[in-house]
Amino acid sequence: MNNEPVLPVGVRVTDPCVAARPKAQVHTGVDVVLRPIDVDLDTDSLFAAGHGADQEWIWTYMPYGPFDDRAQMRAWLQESSESADPRFFTVCQQPDAKPVGMVSYLSIAAEHRSIEVGHIWYSPQVQRTTVNTESIFLLLQHAFNDLGYRRVEWKCDVLNARSCAAAERLGFRPEGIFKQHRIVRSRNRDTAWFAMMDHDWPSIQQAIRTWLGAPQSDRGSLRELTAS
């Protein structure tokens, strides 16, 4: 007698392929370029981007930073540049390719075709511009179109309203809250989970492309476009 449970249609994964792991390479957009960390080029600009009386709030929900001085940040950048998971990228704003922040892939499970985007931070001067939208778009495009992932995750402290809003604006769907998930800076962190699936990506990709390609005065709500 065959005692194997009968699985519902659609449960079995018939394609056994493994996703590719992201490499240290350049991703070029219109307003931003994502490139591997260059400690010599990046230290001064990134230190300035994230330090100062009106800027250090960007580290509130990060497990590191602000840094005491440039030397300390340089050491962290050096260590980060050697990491494959997280795989960090410096975000450079066009037209002068000035470093203005960082993004990464992390929690890379190539065998399950699941990956996360995170460690996202930018200079306050470029927030509410196209920098974050295009940076995450480039990461999503590469993960789904080139590397073969079927799930991209976004996780953040549930108290981080900016990050939660950004996730939904970009088309990630909320999946719930992990209570007491982490202890960060001696504080409890309840983690909000968001994710995007490969079957949702084509319509989200087109929505973001449309939004990025429109004149600023005609862009409207990206959240409405990605939710449709």
Overview features:
single chain, 228 residues, alpha+beta, Aminopeptidase, 8-stranded mixed β-sheet, 6 helices, 30% helix, 28% strand, globular
The gyration radius over C-alpha positions equals 19 Å
Structural class of the secondary elements? alpha+beta
Order of helices and strands: EEHHEEEHEHEEHH
Proportion of residues in helical segments: 25-40%
Q: For the report, how would you describe the main beta sheet?
A: 8 strands, mixed
- Name of the top-level CATH class: Alpha Beta
Strand content: 25-35%
Number of strands: 8
Side-by-side strand order of the widest sheet: 1-2-3-4-5-6-8-7
What gross morphology would you assign? globular
List unreliable stretches of 5+ residues.
none
Number of H/I helices: 6
Q: How many separate structural domains?
A: 1
CATH architect. name = 3-Layer(aba) Sandwich
What is the distance, rounded to the nearest whole angstrom, between the alpha carbons of the first and last residues?
48 Å
Write down the overall mean pLDDT. 95
Overview of this protein structure:
- The chain is α+β, with helices and mostly antiparallel strands and 228 residues long.
- It has one domain: Gcn5-related N-acetyltransferase (GNAT) (Aminopeptidase, 3-Layer(aba) Sandwich), CATH 3.40.630.
- Helices cover 30% and strands 28% of the residues.
- The protein contains six helices and eight strands; from the N terminus they run E-E-H-H-E-E-E-H-E-H-E-E-H-H.
- Strands 1-2-3-4-5-6-8-7 form an eight-stranded mixed sheet, sandwiched between helices.
- Strand 7 and strand 8 form a beta hairpin.
- Helix 1 crosses helix 2 and helix 3 packs antiparallel against helix 5.
- The longest helix is centred in the middle third of the chain and has 17 residues.
- The radius of gyration is 19 Å and the shape is globular.
- The model has no long low-confidence stretch (mean pLDDT 95).
